[in-house]
Design goal:
Helix content of chain B: 55-70%
CATH class of chain A: Mainly Alpha
Shape of chain B: globular
Radius of gyration of chain A: 22 Å
Distance between the termini of chain B: 7 Å
Distance between the termini of chain A: 67 Å
CATH architecture of chain A: Up-down Bundle
CATH architecture of chain B: Up-down Bundle
Oligomer: heterodimer
Shape of chain A: elongated
Number of domains of chain B: 1
Structural class of chain A: mainly alpha
Mean pLDDT of chain A: 89
CATH superfamily of chain A: Cytochrome c oxidase, subunit III, four-helix bundle
Bound molecules: copper (II) ion
Strand content of chain A: under 5%
CATH superfamily of chain B: Cytochrome c oxidase-like, subunit I domain
Number of helices of chain A: 6
CATH class of chain B: Mainly Alpha
Structural class of chain B: mainly alpha
Helix content of chain A: over 70%
Low-confidence stretches of chain A: 1-11
Number of strands of chain B: 2
Number of strands of chain A: 0
Chain lengths: ~220, ~550
């Protein structure tokens, strides 16, 4: 019967640093981080199903999909890729700042990450408006030169579903980061407690990575 | 066996009063806002019973309608709506959450020697999502109805249906979040919350199956989500994602759907196998023979389960080469299943067998599961499937697995763990009678359906050729016996809550970790954190 099998007792539950189900602070932190990684597993399969649908139709209708892709605004797409990647970097630096207890840097990087996220959505909105002007919204108003109208519409449906779901994830991320910012203003985080910032950052990186796959597939694949 | 180390952390006991999770707090709020995994398990038991009741009523009406060949009871449209309601409710609101959300919730932390799941509030949220989504689905099915069948195949679910397809699918989408969050909780808990000394190969076999099940839930459910989402978009937006006239491919929907829905069968059956693997050692006084093989075969089933979905599409027009591969892969399932069945039966060898109700359920599981599994091989065989697909043979096959397997073991688990969960014994004699009624009633209901299928009676038809009537009457008669087998436990289990004998911590004399704490367990499961030194059930 090992006496030292467990870490030293600590105050749990109300008023304590550790929730009642955990033994140690360290266990609680790693558990939260694991939880997010596991959640990302489900996210990968969700977007994976969508990518599969895209891939199937891309293989069946290559020419129509290329003609659909040619209506994309690669300039805005590229700027957005830079925007979201920079935002991801800022979020990582925010985690570092939280770990080092630099509270002003933490707040600053959170503000940068959030605002770049918003900028991404604004630019995406500009693109959507351009698609609307070009009658590329699928449905009755959709206009595309024959003979590819129906097949190109498939490209545009999947484009809107993919970018729409990505935008939704980004919106959730902006909400989460805003909550982090709120807590950062209350000085909740420091070297001994930064797990929520780290977990939100990992989610934020995931949203970034999804875009990193969407951008080449939806904008650049032209042969 | 588990030894109990020095008390750590909280002193729980006040002297002179036996406190446990049921009497530590009172009132409706202490249940609706609880974060205790044991209480949340009870919340699931109650809501699952309601869902099961609804699905069973639909099943009863189906059997009533099929009593005569010409469809006297309901209209053709009404019949379509009935079997859709039965399928949707039973699959997503009962079978998928059944054992994991109740007994998994209650016993996973206890078997790990943990105080609770890793994320207790998330666990409660899962239940609320389930209730919200479930109520949504039921509302859509009852007010208006859906006539597509639980599979939502296009184009039945697109241009040919004017029923509540979109609301039903949205409800199922919502319920999916509940499944995913529960799975996430179980996976993280198994990784992070194990008691000192509890290595992977000392985990109870029930934990192995719940873990494998959770992996499937986590990775398959999102694919169903995207499939349903695309279908909803097609209907609402009137575009043609799966519509061939607009360049879409209906087979793509079937692929995405079965990529979830075949593994879903393992979500249903693996936890049931886990319960069998707990009951048999408890009532034979021996650890399960071939522990490692049984543990790993759960993973084998989970992995192979992801690679066989095409066996639902042999006649859908998929490539013959794909069908051949899916056929061969499907045979692999039999290997992993057989590993379990043989090891369970070997466990009886030189064991001292105590034939109590839970063991009766476990034995009935083995019989029915073998029957369902072997007929699965018929269906995995390409030429035979061409004859049998979309007949009652398929219906009989998957009911042997889902009802004979999962539902039997849900009741088996209920009897096995009832003393632990409530602190009371159920009455043994009526319980044995109910187990026998269930076995007899089940076989009488579903064995004739194998015959009907082999004779060529198609599924999902409102009326049928009078030559099939004898077997249909037998099946409907069996359904009434089966119903008795469900109603009886409902009555005496409720009765035992008040009048049952006090159970004591370990009425079965089991070596399982959950039996080493009091019945009912204290709020945080153990009065001191256990330290594990051996495999489960080591004598
Ligand atoms: Cu299958």
């Amino acid at each position: 019967m090992p006496e030292d099998a467990l870490s030293t007792p600590i105050l749990r539950g109300e008023g304590g640093r550790v929730d009642e189900q955990f033994e140690t602070v360290e266990q609680q932190q790693t558990t939260a981080v694991t939880g997010l990684w596991v959640f990302l597993g489900t996210e990968v399969m969700f977007f994976g199903g969508l990518f599969l649908a895209f891939l199937v139709y891309r293989l069946v209708y290559p020419q129509a999909f290329i003609e659909g892709t040619e209506h994309q605004n690669v300039l805005i797409g590229t700027i957005n890729t830079i925007v979201i990647t920079t935002s991801s970097l800022a979020m990582r630096l925010a985690v570092r700042a939280a770990q080092l207890g630099q509270r002003w840097r933490l707040r600053g990087f959170l503000v940068i990450a959030i605002n770049l996220g918003v900028l991404f959505l604004v630019l995406k909105g500009v693109e959507y408006y351009q698609h609307y002007e070009e009658s590329l919204i699928p449905g009755h108003a959709f206009k595309f030169p024959e003979p590819f109208a129906a097949q190109a519409q498939m490209y545009w449906i999947l484009y809107f579903v993919a970018t729409g779901l990505h935008g939704l994830h980004l919106l959730v991320g902006i909400g989460v980061l805003s909550v982090m910012f709120f807590f950062a203003m209350l000085d909740k985080f420091g070297p001994e407690y930064y797990t929520p910032v780290e977990v939100s950052a990992n989610y934020w990186h995931f949203v970034d990575i999804v875009w990193t796959f969407l951008f080449p597939v939806l904008y650049l694949l032209r042969w | 066996m588990a030894t109990i180390a020095q008390p750590v952390g909280q002193p729980i006991e006040q002297p002179g009063r036996f406190t446990h999770y049921l009497n530590s707090e009172y009132g409706i709020r202490s249940w609706l806002f609880t974060t205790d995994h044991k209480r949340i398990a009870w919340l699931y038991v109650i809501t699952l019973t309601l869902a099961f009741g609804l699905g069973a009523i639909a099943a009863g009406l189906i059997r009533l309608a099929l009593f005569t060949p010409q469809g006297d009871v309901v209209t053709a449209q009404g019949y379509d709506e009935l079997f859709t309601m039965h399928g949707v409710i039973m699959v997503w609101l009962f079978l998928i959450p059944s054992i994991p959300a109740t007994f998994g919730n209650f016993f996973l932390p206890i078997m790990l020697g943990a105080r609770d799941l890793a994320f207790p509030r998330l666990n409660l949220l899962s239940w609320y999502i389930y209730v919200f989504g479930g109520a949504w689905v039921v509302a859509a099915l009852v007010y208006g109805g859906v006539d597509t069948g639980w599979t939502f195949y296009t184009p039945y679910s697109t241009e040919y249906s004017h029923t509540n397809v979109v609301p039903t699918e949205m409800g199922i989408f919502i319920v999916g979040f509940s499944t995913i969050l529960t799975a996430l909780n179980f996976i993280v808990t198994t990784h992070r919350m194990r008691a000192p000394g509890l290595t992977w190969f000392r985990l109870p076999l029930f934990v192995w199956t719940i873990y494998a099940t959770s992996l499937i839930m986590l990775l398959a459910t999102p694919v169903l989500a995207i499939a349903l989402l695309l279908l909803v978009i097609q209907r609402v937006w009137t575009v043609g994602i799966f519509d061939p006239s607009l360049g879409g491919d209906p087979l793509l929907f079937q692929h995405l759907f079965w990529f979830y829905s075949h593994p879903a069968v393992y979500i249903m059956i693996l936890p049931a196998m886990g319960v069998v693997s707990e009951i048999i050692p408890s009532f034979t006084r021996r650890p399960v023979f071939g522990y490692k093989a049984v543990a790993i075969s759960s993973f084998g089933l989970a992995i192979v389960g992801f690679l066989v979905w095409g066996h639902h599409m042999f006649t859908s027009g998929q490539s013959i080469y794909a069908s051949m591969i899916f056929s061969v892969m499907s045979f692999l399932v039999a290997i992993f299943s057989a590993i379990k069945v043989f090891n369970w039966t070997f466990t009886f060898f030189r064991g001292s067998v105590w034939l109590q109700t839970p063991l009766l359920y476990a034995l009935s599981f083995i019989g029915l599961f073998v029957m369902g599994g072997l007929t699965g091989l018929y269906l995995a065989t390409l030429p035979l499937d061409v004859h049998l697909t979309d007949t009652y043979f398929v219906i009989a096959h998957f009911h042997y697995i889902m009802v004979g397997g999962t539902l039997s073991m849900y009741l088996g688990a209920m009897h096995y763990w009832w003393p632990k969960m409530t602190g009371r014994m159920y009455p043994e004699l009526p319980a044995k009678l109910a187990a026998l009624l269930l076995f007899a009633g089940f076989n009488l209901t579903f064995f004739p359906q194998y015959v009907l299928g082999a004779l060529g009676m198609p599924r999902r038809y409102w009326s049928y050729d009078p030559v099939y009537q004898v077997w249909n009457v037998l099946s409907s008669a069996g359904a009434t016996v089966l119903a008795l087998g469900y109603i009886l436990p409902f009555v005496y289990l409720l009765w035992s809550l008040k009048y049952g004998e006090k159970a004591g911590p370990n009425p079965w004399g089991s070596k399982g970790l959950e039996w080493q704490t009091s019945s009912p367990p204290p709020r945080f499961n153990f009065r001191a954190t256990p330290v594990i030194t051996q495999r489960p059930h080591t004598q």
